[in-house]
Amino acid sequence: MGRYIDDILQPGETVIYSANEHWIVFWQAILAAIVAVVALIGTRLVVNEAVTLVGLGLAAIMAAVALIYGVRAWFQRWTTETYITSERVVHKQGFIKRTTFEMNLDKVEGVDVNQSVLGRMLDYGDVVIQGVGDGEKPVRMIASPLQFRNHITTRGRPA
Questions:
Q1: Residue 91 belongs to what H/E stretch?
Q2: Which pLDDT band, with edges at 50, 70 and 90, does 46 fall under?
Q3: Does residue 50 have a pLDDT over 60?
Q4: CB-based burial label for 80 (10 Å; 0-12, 13-18, 19+)
Q5: pLDDT in tens, 62-99
Q6: 15 CB neighbour count, 10 Å cutoff
Q7: How many angstroms separate the Cα of 45 from the Cα of each of 33, 38, 50, 56, 58?
Q8: CA distance 22 to 145
Q9: For residue 150, with 0-12 CB atoms within 10 Å meaning exposed, 13-18 middle and 19 or more buried, which class applies?
Q10: What is the pTM of this model?
Q11: Angle, nearest 10°, between helix axes 49-78 and 27-45?
């Protein structure tokens, strides 16, 4: 499966900037893996066989949950593409059920960046692109949202 952008680029149009979802989309998988490791370590600290079996069971369940969440987050990140070309902003989500939007850079009216405290520390956030006649188009959990915004507002020219 090739990149979505390769199928839709117009003659003379070039990719200026490519953005990904931030690795924070793996937070549930990371948390479940931590719980699994803590449960596994906890089984080594007790001498009661019943408690050890419960701990091992919890560790196995949480490891399976971590794997499920991790695969889901990886697939979401793999099937989400966001680009700024010399002519437009392109965003695609999904594999079977695909959601896309494309907005000409000339039609961009404003770009808002929303970041939580954690988002500012880890450099991720949501970008909302307002377009003339297109309304608001959100791009969620994007890495380096300020850099993404700057590439849009400079219309693809070097900052």
A1: strand 88-93
A2: confident
A3: yes
A4: buried
A5: 999 999 999 999 999 999 999 999 999 999 999 889 99
A6: 15
A7: 19, 11, 13, 12, 15
A8: 10
A9: middle
A10: 0.82
A11: 160
Token digits of residue 60: 């196995």
Distance CA 68, CA 91 (A): 26
Query: Quick one: pLDDT at residue 128?
Result: 96
Residue 135: strand pairing partners: 131
Helix, strand, coil: what percent of the chain each, to 5?
50, 30, 25
Whole-angstrom distance, CA of residue 43 vs CA of residue 77: 34
Alpha-carbon 77 to chain mean position:
5
Residue count of the chain: 159
Residue type present at position 146: L
Instruction: Find the largest Cα–Cα distance for the chain.
Output: 70
